Amino acid sequence: MTNFLLIHGSCHGAWCWRHVIPALKLRGHKVNAIDLPSHGADGTPICEVTLDLYAKAILDAIKVPTVVVGHSMAGFPISRAAALDNRMIKRLVFLCAYMPREGMTLADMRREAPYQPLMQAVVKSADGLSFTIDPLQTRDVFYHDCTAADAAYANTRLCPQAILPQETSIELGAKYESVPKSYVICSEDRTIPPEYQRQMAANLPKEDVYEISTSHSPFFSDPTGLANLLHRIAG
C-alpha cells in the first residue's frame, strides 16, 4: 500500500482526478487530491498566489511518507515542496509535467519547448494577474481523446490560473535532488510537446521514464491505465 497525493495542473482542481482516485483505491492504495490555492474550492485571491504558497499547500497535505504526483504545471510546485521539506516525500512523479531546472521559471521552460501549442488558447486577464483557456479550444488542447462528457464536465470547472507562480524562478537544491523521481510522457499531448517531455526526462534513469499514448489528460482518457502505471511506479 502506498499513500498518493495527486496535484492538478493549470486551471484545474482536485476534481480532475475523480476517475483515478477510485482506481488507485481498488489497488489497495490511500489517495488524496487537493485544490491548490485559488483553484477548485479554495478561495485564495489570485493576487495572493505564489509558487511557495502552492508548495506549502502540498506540504500541509502530507502527513505520512507519500508519493506525490504532479500534472503539467504542478511539476514546479511539487519540486519546490521537496526543496523545502523532503522528509515525507517518497517519490515525485511528473505526469506530462514541467520538470524544473535550478533558476528557471515555468514560463522560461515553456518558451524553451520547440513549439507552443497551448498559447493560441490562452486568454490573459485585463489586470494581467491570471489567464484562462478559451472554452472553445479546451477540447483540442487538453481533452481530444476524452469523452464528450468528461470534456464538458471539465469545461464548467476550469478556473483562472495565477501567472506569478509561473513567472517565479525556482530554487531547488540538495533536498530536491535527493528525492527519487519518475516521469510519465504522454505521446499524444497537445499542450506540452512530447519531444520536450522526453528532453526534460532525459537525465532520469531509463527505468524511471514511462510513455503512454494519451493526450495531456490521461486522468480522463485512460484512468485505469494511469492507475496501473502509478501502482507499478509505487511498487
TrEMBL record:
One GO molecular-function entry: methyl jasmonate esterase activity
InterPro entries, alphabetized: AB_hydrolase_1 (IPR000073), AB_hydrolase_fold (IPR029058), MES/HNL (IPR045889)
Q: Which residues form the AB hydrolase-1 domain?
A: 4-228
Q: Which domain of life is it from?
A: Bacteria
The UniProt entry, under PANTHER family, shows: AB HYDROLASE-1 DOMAIN-CONTAINING PROTEIN, METHYLESTERASE FAMILY MEMBER
What species does this protein belong to?
Donghicola tyrosinivorans
Protein name (database record): Pimeloyl-ACP methyl ester carboxylesterase
